[in-house]
C-alpha cells in the first residue's frame, strides 16, 4: 500500500505560519507582491529586500511549533511503515514542521527556509540565522552569493522524478491544505486520476480543483487530518 500526500500552507496555518491566498484576501501574496519577492529576477534586482522577507519568515518559523495535523501525518507514516506500507509526504511548504513532528521522509518540492544555497558553488547549508548580501559561502567563501534554498516562480521544483514515480504507483493521493493554484503541484491530482488512483482533498474550504477529487473533507487541518488518519 502506498499513499502519497501533498501538503500546502494550510497545514501550517494553525502553527501561526501565513498562507498565501485565501478567500479573505489576507494571505502573504495579498500583502507582498510575489513577483518582487519570489522570483530569481526579484532577487537579482534587490537581494536585500528579498533576504529581509525570508529572514523575517525564518525567525517566525523558529518560534512556531507543529500542530495536530503534522503530528497525525507523522503517526500515519509510522503506522504504514510498521505494516510494510509506505507514505511519501511531498510538501510545498518550506517550513520544517513536518520533520519536527516526527515525519522521516519529507520531500520539500519548493525548498527549505532553514537551508541556504550558494549561487556560485551550489553548496547547500543548514541555516537558521539571517542571510545578507555579504554573507560568505561556508564552502567556497565567496561573498554575496548565498540565497535562500527556496524554489521561486520560474524555477524547477525539486524531486519531481520521485514525485512523478510516486504518482504512478500510489494507491491513494491526498492533498492537504493547498489552494491548488501553483503548478506543477496543482497538476498532481490530474496525474493521479489519469493513473486510476483514488484522490482525496482535505482543506479548510474547497480548493481551485476540488471538483477533481473523489473524496473531499473540510475543516481546520488540526481537526480534519487526525480524523482522517484515525
Ligand atoms: C515551474 C516557495 C517550470 C517560495 C513557491 C502552468 C499553468 C499556469 C502557471 C504555471 C504553469 N506551470 C508553471 C507555472 C508558473 C508558476 C505557477 O504555477 N504560477 C501560478 C501562480 C499560476 N509555477 C512555477 O513557476 C513553478 N516552477 O513550473 O518551473 C520550469 C520548467 C523547466 C525549467 C525551469 C522551470 C514553481 C512554483 C514554486 C514557487 N514557490 N513557494 C516561498 O514560499 O516564498 S509557491 C507558493 O505557493 C507557496 O510557497 C506555496 O508553496 C505555493 C502553493 O500555495 P499553497 O501551499 O497552496 O498555499 P495557499 O495559501 O495558496 O493555499 C492554502 C490553502 O490552505 C487554502 O486553500 C486555504 O483555504 C487552506 N487553509 C487555510 N487555513 C487552513 C487551511 N486548510 C486547512 N486548515 C487550515 N487551518
TrEMBL record:
<feature type="binding site">
    <location>
        <position position="140"/>
    </location>
    <ligand>
        <name>Zn(2+)</name>
    </ligand>
</feature>
<feature type="binding site">
    <location>
        <position position="121"/>
    </location>
    <ligand>
        <name>Zn(2+)</name>
    </ligand>
</feature>
<dbReference type="InterPro" id="IPR003000">
    <property type="entry name" value="Sirtuin"/>
</dbReference>
<dbReference type="InterPro" id="IPR029035">
    <property type="entry name" value="DHS-like_NAD/FAD-binding_dom"/>
</dbReference>
<feature type="active site" description="Proton acceptor">
    <location>
        <position position="110"/>
    </location>
</feature>
<feature type="domain" description="Deacetylase sirtuin-type">
    <location>
        <begin position="1"/>
        <end position="230"/>
    </location>
</feature>
<keyword id="KW-0520">NAD</keyword>
<protein>
    <recommendedName>
        <fullName>NAD-dependent protein deacylase</fullName>
        <ecNumber>2.3.1.286</ecNumber>
    </recommendedName>
</protein>
<dbReference type="Pfam" id="PF02146">
    <property type="entry name" value="SIR2"/>
</dbReference>
<dbReference type="InterPro" id="IPR026590">
    <property type="entry name" value="Ssirtuin_cat_dom"/>
</dbReference>
<keyword id="KW-0808">Transferase</keyword>
<feature type="binding site">
    <location>
        <begin position="177"/>
        <end position="179"/>
    </location>
    <ligand>
        <name>NAD(+)</name>
    </ligand>
</feature>
<feature type="binding site">
    <location>
        <position position="54"/>
    </location>
    <ligand>
        <name>substrate</name>
    </ligand>
</feature>
<dbReference type="GO" id="GO:0005737">
    <property type="term" value="C:cytoplasm"/>
</dbReference>
<dbReference type="InterPro" id="IPR026591">
    <property type="entry name" value="Sirtuin_cat_small_dom_sf"/>
</dbReference>
<dbReference type="GO" id="GO:0017136">
    <property type="term" value="F:histone deacetylase activity, NAD-dependent"/>
</dbReference>
<comment type="function">
    <text>NAD-dependent lysine deacetylase and desuccinylase that specifically removes acetyl and succinyl groups on target proteins. Modulates the activities of several proteins which are inactive in their acylated form.</text>
</comment>
<dbReference type="GO" id="GO:0036055">
    <property type="term" value="F:protein-succinyllysine desuccinylase activity"/>
</dbReference>
<feature type="binding site">
    <location>
        <position position="137"/>
    </location>
    <ligand>
        <name>Zn(2+)</name>
    </ligand>
</feature>
<dbReference type="GO" id="GO:0070403">
    <property type="term" value="F:NAD+ binding"/>
</dbReference>
<keyword id="KW-0963">Cytoplasm</keyword>
<keyword id="KW-0479">Metal-binding</keyword>
<dbReference type="InterPro" id="IPR050134">
    <property type="entry name" value="NAD-dep_sirtuin_deacylases"/>
</dbReference>
<keyword id="KW-0862">Zinc</keyword>
<feature type="binding site">
    <location>
        <position position="118"/>
    </location>
    <ligand>
        <name>Zn(2+)</name>
    </ligand>
</feature>
<dbReference type="GO" id="GO:0036054">
    <property type="term" value="F:protein-malonyllysine demalonylase activity"/>
</dbReference>
<feature type="binding site">
    <location>
        <begin position="92"/>
        <end position="95"/>
    </location>
    <ligand>
        <name>NAD(+)</name>
    </ligand>
</feature>
<dbReference type="InterPro" id="IPR027546">
    <property type="entry name" value="Sirtuin_class_III"/>
</dbReference>
<comment type="similarity">
    <text>Belongs to the sirtuin family. Class III subfamily.</text>
</comment>
<feature type="binding site">
    <location>
        <position position="57"/>
    </location>
    <ligand>
        <name>substrate</name>
    </ligand>
</feature>
<dbReference type="GO" id="GO:0008270">
    <property type="term" value="F:zinc ion binding"/>
</dbReference>
<feature type="binding site">
    <location>
        <position position="221"/>
    </location>
    <ligand>
        <name>NAD(+)</name>
    </ligand>
</feature>
